[in-house]
Design a protein that fits this description.
Release factor glutamine methyltransferase, 38% helix, 11 helices, Rossmann fold, Helicase, Ruva Protein, domain 3, single chain, 9 strands, HemK-like, alpha/beta
């Protein structure tokens, strides 16, 4: 008999977590205990640590009902961030839904690299940066929140996705310093933004050949247009990299999130376009994650 079969009312926090962990694990969730705790904490409006302090607390029917609905969605493969409606990124919290890719910790590698490369704040100088393919607005808004001297142009090809990014800017009170433009890559960028101090992007970079390697949560629920870029994942980068030279100031940097197997290929694209001081930076797991290059 499985542990889930021995469990039943009254449903305390400990018992419901044990049952849910088994239930989600049987349905292929890769982190069933963590997911169960995060969702229960949300249902009860408690920090996860408080779940451990209140293991013997019984749940009332309204709490159980709310939790059941979330677990049903998670068991079907829906990502936790979409169920919660938010995700922490860098030093901000972003609204998340199916209009955009869920921000990932690996992308914080790009934010950190950008902050290190931006010139020191100068009261008499306003820096201009563009974030191409902004999604939720994660990179643009994290950088704007860190640097009050920064003006940011955030672009996306999807009007729906851009709507979510604008909502996040409003929630973070950053709408006055982050401007949003719809269109394909750099075609969306107005001419008066064509002298950038930095350009950053987390473009689609997964190859169609890798589709079946993705977790179900990603493949079936996150927007495909934000994930895939041709057979080898480099189609968009082949267009974005050479075009970036036309909008960067001399000496300014281009920073790109890339796939962990794309370091050599992206280095070649940057070299062919004429960029200098090219480097591939690792993420927290030690895998290639960010391409950094300077316009001569």
């Amino acid at each position: 008999m499985s542990s889930s079969e021995t469990l039943g009312p009254p449903w305390t926090i400990l018992k419901i977590l044990r049952w849910t962990t088994d239930f989600l694990g049987e349905r292929g969730c890769d982190s069933p205990r963590v997911d169960a705790e995060i969702l229960l904490g949300h249902a009860l409006d408690l920090p996860r640590i408080q779940l451990y302090a209140q293991f013997d607390r019984p749940l009332i029917e309204s709490e159980l009902s709310a939790y059941r609905q979330m677990i049903k969605r998670r068991a079907a493969g829906e990502p936790v961030a979409y169920i919660l409606g938010e995700r922490g990124f860098w030093n901000i919290t972003l609204k998340t839904d199916a209009r955009a890719l869920i921000p990932r910790p690996d992308t914080e590698t790009l934010v950190e690299a950008a902050l290190k490369l931006l010139p020191a704040p100068d009261a008499d100088q306003e820096l201009r940066l563009a974030d191409i393919g902004t999604g939720t607005g994660a990179i643009a808004l994290a950088l704007a929140a860190e640097r009050p001297d920064l003006r940011v142009a955030a672009t996306d090809i999807s009007a729906e996705t851009l709507g979510l990014a604008k909502e996040n800017a409003e929630l973070l009170d950053l709408s006055d310093r982050v401007s949003f433009f719809q269109g394909d890559l750099l075609q969306a960028l107005p001419a008066d933004w064509h002298a950038l101090d930095m350009l950053v992007s987390n473009p689609p970079y997964i190859g169609e050949s890798e589709r079946e390697e993705l977790m179900r949560d990603v493949r079936d629920f996150e927007p495909a247009a934000a994930l895939f870029s041709g057979e080898d994942g480099l189609d968009i980068l082949r267009r974005l990299i050479p075009a970036s030279l036309d909008v960067l100031k001399p000496g300014a940097y281009l920073l790109l999130e890339i796939g962990y197997r794309q370091g050599a290929a992206v280095t070649g694209l940057l070299e062919d376009a004429g960029f200098k001081d090219i480097d591939i930076l690792p993420d927290l797991g030690g895998r290639d994650r960010v391409a950094r290059a300077r316009r001569p």
